[in-house]
Write a structure and sequence with these properties.
The complex is a heterotrimer of chains A (about 140), B (about 725) and C (about 280).
Chain A lengths: L1 E3 L2 E3 L9 H8 L18 E4 L2 E4 L12 E3 L8 H9 L8 H14 L5 H8 L9 H9 L4
Parallel strand pairs in A: 1-5
Antiparallel strand pairs in A: 1-2, 3-4, 3-5
Helix pairs in contact in A: 2-5
Chain B lengths: L1 E10 L2 E10 L23 H5 L15 E7 L5 E7 L1 H4 L4 E5 L17 E7 L2 H9 L2 E6 L6 H7 L7 E5 L2 H7 L2 E9 L11 E7 L2 E6 L4 H12 L6 E4 L16 H12 L3 E4 L2 H7 L5 E10 L5 E13 L9 H5 L6 E9 L13 H19 L3 H7 L17 H13 L1 H5 L6 E12 L8 E6 L5 E4 L9 H13 L6 E4 L17 H27 L6 H5 L7 E6 L11 E12 L5 E11 L6 H20 L30 E6 L23 H13 L10 H15 L6
Parallel strand pairs in B: 3-13, 11-12, 15-16, 19-20, 23-24
Antiparallel strand pairs in B: 1-2, 3-6, 4-7, 5-6, 8-16, 9-14, 10-11, 10-13, 14-15, 17-22, 18-19, 18-21, 22-23
Helix pairs in contact in B: 10-18, 14-15, 17-18
Chain C lengths: L1 E3 L13 E3 L5 H7 L6 E4 L8 E2 L2 E3 L4 H5 L6 H9 L3 H6 L2 H5 L6 H4 L37 H8 L3 E4 L3 E3 L23 E5 L5 E7 L10 E8 L2 E7 L6 E2 L14 H19 L2
Parallel strand pairs in C: 1-3, 2-3
Antiparallel strand pairs in C: 4-5, 5-8, 6-7, 6-8, 9-10, 10-11, 11-12
The chains are: A alpha+beta (about 140), B alpha+beta (about 725), C alpha+beta (about 280).
Amino acid sequence: MLEVNGHAYELPADAGTTLAEALRDDFHLTGTKVACAEGHCGACTVLVDGAPTLSCITLAHAVDGAHVTTIEGLRDHPMVASFVRADALQCGFCTPGQIVSAVALVDATPAPTQQQIRHAMAGNLCRCGAYPKIEEAIRTWRD
Amino acid sequence: MARLIRTEKEVEGRYEEVWLVVDEDALDQWPAGPGDVVGRPTQRVDGFERARGEAVYTADLYLNGMLHTAVLRSPHAHARVTRIDLSRALALPGVHAAIGPGDCEQLTDLPSYQGAAIAAVCADTYAQARAGLRAVELELEVLEPLLDADEAVGRGQLLGEQRSRERGDVERGFEEADVVVEGEFRTQVVLHNSMETHQAVVQWVGDGIEVHISTQYIWGIRDQVATGLGLPPDKVRVICNYMGGGFGSKNGADDYTFIAAELAKRTGRPVKCALTRREENIAAGNRNATIQRLRIGARSDGTITAMSGEYVNAVGWGGWVAGTDGPMHLLYACPNVRTVLHGAKLNLPPMKAFRAPGFVEGTFGLEALLDELATKLELDPLELRRHNHAEHDPVDGRPFSSKNLLECYRRAEPHWERRHEVRARSTDTVKHGVGMASQVWYGGGGPPSYAWVRVGSDGRATVVTAMQDIGTGSKTAMAQIAAEELGIPLEHVTVSLGDSARGPYASISAGSSTIPSMGPAVRAAAADARRQIDEIAEQKGTPDAPLEEIVALLEDAQILGKGARGPNPTGMQVLTFGVQVAEVAVDVETGEVWVVRLAAVHDVGRVINPLGASSQVEGGIIQGIGHTLSEQRLTDPRTGRILTTTLDAYKLPTIADVPEIVSELIDAPDAHLTNLGSKGLGEPPIVPTAAAIANAIRDATGADVRELPISREEMLRALRETRERRGAPAAV
Amino acid sequence: MELLRPSSLEEIPASNSLLLAGGTEVVPQLRSGLLQAERLVDVRGLVPQGIDGTRIGAGATLAELEIDPQIPEALRESCRLAASPQLRNMSTLAGNLLQSTRCWYWRLRWPCRLHGGDECFARDGEHREHAFFGNGYCASAHPSDVAAALLALDATIETTARTFPLADLYRLPTEDDRRSTTLAPGEVMLWIDVPEPDASVYLKAMERKLFGFPIVGVAAVRTGNATRVALAGAAPVPWLLDGPLDDATPLPGTAYKVEIARVLVRRAVDAVASR
């Protein structure tokens, strides 16, 4: 069983299926994006037991028993509204992964410094360059 | 009233003459300054869909029965297929079809660059398609590739003709000069690496075709597919509701669209063909490398008397020759300029437009050499630029529709002033400096573009277009424009886009042209709707009643306003301008460079959405920093095969690479340009960044950097050369 | 392919078992064809993960070590600067030590020496990210920051079979044996013993500010009057610097790395001397 956003899903039959493939192709949760499929860009970031994890290089079977949180499970988190308010997105393809990483950061550190934000978010690439506003969104998420 | 005109249409610096039917643009511009909605910071109208992961990109699309495609792309820079057999692939489980050279135009048996498509297999799953590809029996004869740009020019292996442009008398100009500086500048191949890779899902429906595609130009794809497949354009429907970045690389249908179309025809199923990230780094297009051999001569008072440049664009196997020579012709008032531009045709993947193609590269060379001139003349770089400011188009003397570059310089002064305090922070090992660079680019857009505005009895309006929002927030800007013109709240406006079957022609989202092309059409449509509503109010005898009260009479009927982009001002040059000031720190022992602060001042006419606009400025600057410091596509020197195919090898900037960015837009409407006075903003911010950083490095260390990217190796080389020039002992 | 999740190390099948912990190398390498396996064995629950005196569990993640004040600074800093936050959450100490080179020729499966072929394509090719020591046969660079720190810390590895200095985990590939690690089939790392130094530091040169492999990484560790220095990104294996940098054998395109190494070695040695 895979527990995703509090719901139970059947494990995919093929043990070689990645968590990203299971989420997107089997469970039709396409909020989690795949941009590189090799663990280099962070777009596929989900939380596994609260820890930001690259779903494109995680085997679905390896998270059997863990709590998986995707962007679909965070749709009402204040961070989402903070991103929209701050205009912390442009094309939006990297944004779900950014928000997942940002939520994990503020769960651990509710008022992060710029250095802490940069350290925690360096694994989420954004080609459009929304970074300055992503920083602002994280700084002001409780406003 | 409709009129047939002949006009110049410009995209990405390329001009073509077209016949157009345009409607006159009879509206007066709004007064300068924020209105009720336009000119005010506005959140993206589709922000929540994107942020929540609810937006469906082409990558997320699943159509019933959809098949997946794997493409066999040439691993060699130059080869010939001597044998290909698809039969074993076709026998594998899940495989529905396989095609090879001759089955569609995009599949070749003479691949002339790595990544050229040779064959394709579609299957129930992508893994099965990949397995099918592995079962294709392929024999290739590897041929010698031509990889060196100078060698190609020497051999006459060019794309198109050599392009020479000259004004005045350059020889005499150099004779008049007191000081002449010259240098060779090189820029690297840069890859777009949009986060959503190139892809399409194609389905034949009846005797027509539906193409879902991650694109910057819905209507362009429609035309290309219609022409390519021999279909009437109305039988081609193109859909793109959300797309994950393009930056110029997604202006055309490329190969995957036609491959998917052919496979869809053979299988009777929808077919997805998506590039992998590795394919994206190999075959999705690039900003080509350039070699620039430049000379500038000036009198001792700083007046530039002559400029000349020889440019080689290492275009690759195809594409077009971008205007690397453009800044030299357009930026300064010098009467004597000569440039020669070659497009070297090489066995390398074809270039594609990338955010201000040619001008990023050319501004680096020109503005860096200009600072070398300033150093030699012992003149302040800002003063030197002001001194050579062009009041009119320096190419042909035409007036500018608007130009506020002097105002940009004035607003840059406080940032430029900081250089004294910045330099004072220097230590023995870390030197601090400030540099600047000017920016010129296009951005006027042009006709045709059309929009409809529908108002219903609920007082709400829908802007009906077939445009695309490539992430710039153009959807939001159109909503603002319609709301402002109709005089209704922004929340009462919906913008419909993304489907060629459901709206009129919309221009490409490239060349900084969406707002200046679509915006006026939307305003005109809203104004047309407003006029019809006002006429009803007149008839009813209540001319001052609010809009909501009048349209409440409509019940099921609707008002439909139509609008079109009018012509560009005749006899005027329409350009954007700006200046950036960079503060850097350089560890002179390790060659590490920090961009600490970057101030940007840009003149792009009226700003519709200051919030979205500042995001464009920041995004352009950050891409500019990547271009300057860390991004480079590398190839194996012997075979030309690409080595940087993944995002660990190809180094995009992360959040940690971002400086303090301070940006300002002049926001002065261009009084001659359309009913809005707005120019495009997507490209101007990336243009001067590399030069500003290179000039700041020179200010900090005295080192002349003439090559991009400014890698550790290049920085250390430049520092070493500076020490040797100064006769200083080795630093370590 | 099957994924086994045994409840003890003894249950791991003796042959055809590819061990999986964080999977940050194994999974992408399986998918790109660099690795082939019919059977993966999930060992995350089976390999020690915590800290026991000076011993660190081989299954500890880099993220856990990054914030642990008991860890010597060089090791903590090498974890902090390695990879991305997500990768640090996922990857284990042992996995990090066993990671493969980033050499593009190897990663793109050119038939190079490490793949059993007879040529090193980097030598006469594009080698700006490659080695300046130990590069006579293979010019690849070892990308692990953590390995360099542990080498300088003179760590000891305890496996299911033996206990040995970390340096012996690695070997330079040779004509008759192309491997760069020495673990026997079925041998599993359990603990890494890290003696506490008097002072340690890790400095890293990268092409962007965060999230990159080392151009060169320098770990300096002082115990008493003795200082050990080890380099990442310098050789096909983590490199103990026991002579002058003048002995380096850079390729034309890696000479700049030696320049940077000189500076970072000096700074690192100075830093530990004064603490």
